[in-house]
Design a protein that fits this description.
Blueprint: H1 2-48, H2 51-61, E1 68-71, H3 72-75, E2 82-86, H4 92-99, E3 112-117, E4 120-126, E5 137-140, E6 146-150, E7 155-161, E8 164-169
Parallel strand pairs: 5-8
Antiparallel strand pairs: 1-7, 2-3, 2-6, 3-4, 7-8
């Protein structure tokens, strides 16, 4: 009897050890799924919060209309009071003089838009211009080197050609 009892006890211990390992594996899988879903959420949020994606999304919403209007005062996901456009013809010194502070991030590649709130940069987007490739993303159709707009002035008509969204001041 004592041996039967010991055998049963060993079997129970083995089963409980197996259950413990299975529980650990389930927890590892849960952690991996949680991490993966957090990563997907971050990636989807960061791609939505991009100037080009905001313009493209708005264009898709009004594609059947003859005129597609975007009002950046209600389209952006952050607080801002001034929208500044700088053509690729501006030097860093010219942009910094106009802004009244030095840009933290500057790549001399082409056009850019900078959103300010109370004189501080809150968002910046720039577009590279590769002369040998067709333009992609957003292009401001203007002859101005610098354009500063308030929230109420930040309305544009969107026109699309290929992979490019052209913004014309409304």
């Amino acid at each position: 009897m004592d041996e039967q009892f010991l055998n049963k006890k060993r079997q129970i211990n083995k089963k409980s050890m197996n259950l413990g390992k299975q529980y650990e594996n389930i927890n590892k899988i849960k952690d991996i799924v949680l991490l993966f879903s957090m990563l997907l959420t971050l990636l989807s949020c960061s791609s939505k919060n991009d100037f080009d994606n905001v313009v493209a999304s708005k264009y898709l919403q009004c594609e059947n209309n003859s005129v597609c209007l975007i009002d950046f005062s209600s389209s952006m996901w952050f607080q801002w009071d001034t929208m500044c456009y700088y053509s690729g013809g501006n030097s860093l010194d010219e942009i910094n003089d106009d802004l009244g502070f030095e840009l933290k991030e500057f790549i001399d590649v082409g056009d850019r838009v900078v959103f300010l709130n109370k004189g501080m940069e809150v968002y910046q987007k720039y577009w590279s211009i590769e002369p040998s490739e067709p333009r992609k993303g957003v292009v401001f159709l203007t002859d101005l080197k610098i354009m500063k707009l308030t929230r109420s002035e930040s309305k544009f008509i969107i026109k699309k050609q290929g992979d490019t969204f052209y913004l014309v001041r409304y």
